[in-house]
Write a structure and sequence with these properties.
This protein is an alpha+beta fold. It is built from five helices and nine strands; from the N terminus they run ααβββββαβββαβα.
């Protein structure tokens, strides 16, 4: 009996000690994980805006942060497209539903691109990324998806360069109809479907990933319209 009690107490003590140690390690790593997550977001913003001088492969996290701080201005806009002076994206509270982060890429005080976050439902997960426009507020400069849980080789192709490169040079504004036309993903190849202006605001879809492609179309439609009050001001020269 005494032996059983000792074994039980020993097992309890070991479990408690291990639990405490695991909690301590997890707490100690939490800050590093948060820092890495924030760095990953910044890297994707830089990727979306297509830096004129790409980040060198040997760049350290500190180098990337310095490039970001020099090249990117962080702003917050409201639902009417007004910049809220003195406010940063990290200061947006969950209760502030009509405030949105905006990232402006500049070189020597010259604006090169505008970027904003995009998110929406795919097949298995929420897709997170960034979408960037040229200074004309019409032409797509780049897009990136940095977080998702889609099927590798199918919907997971949204993170691949071939898919993201399809967006470069496309437009979100129909000059013929003079209206907003968010980018849409087609089933198949754009060149086989459209031979007119509509090809400018459609991109090739992903084979056997119809739902993920539809999710990308939906999220681009939603976020492009949310940010359009700001971009319409630019298109109107205001």
């Amino acid at each position: 009996m005494k032996g059983n009690r000792y074994t039980f107490l020993f097992a309890v003590i070991v479990c408690v000690v291990c639990g405490v140690l695991l909690s301590a390690v997890a707490e100690g790593l939490r800050h590093r994980q948060e820092v890495n997550a924030a760095l990953d977001v910044k890297k994707n913003i830089l990727k979306a805006v297509k830096l004129i001088e790409p980040i060198p492969p040997e760049a350290t996290p500190r180098d990337i942060l310095e490039i970001y701080q020099v090249k990117i201005d962080e702003k917050v806009i409201d639902a009417e497209g007004n910049i809220i002076e003195g406010k940063k994206p990290e200061e947006i509270k969950e209760t502030e539903k009509n405030q949105y982060p905006l990232y402006i890429y500049h070189e020597r005080e010259q604006i090169v691109a505008y970027a904003f976050p995009i998110a929406g439902q795919g097949l298995w997960s929420t897709l997170y990324g960034y979408f960037a426009l040229e200074p004309d507020a019409i032409t797509v400069r780049g897009i990136t998806f940095y977080k998702h849980g889609e099927t590798p080789g199918l919907g997971g192709e949204i993170e691949k360069e071939w898919f993201q490169k399809n967006f470069e040079g496309k437009t979100i504004w129909s000059k013929k109809e003079k209206k907003l036309t968010p980018i849409a993903v087609v089933k198949g190849h754009v060149e086989d479907i459209y031979q007119d202006e509509r090809a400018d605001f459609h991109v090739d879809g992903i084979t056997a990933a119809t739902i993920t492609s539809s999710g990308v179309t939906a999220l681009l439609d939603r976020w492009t319209r949310i940010y359009d009050p700001f971009f319409s001001r630019i298109r109107q020269g205001r």
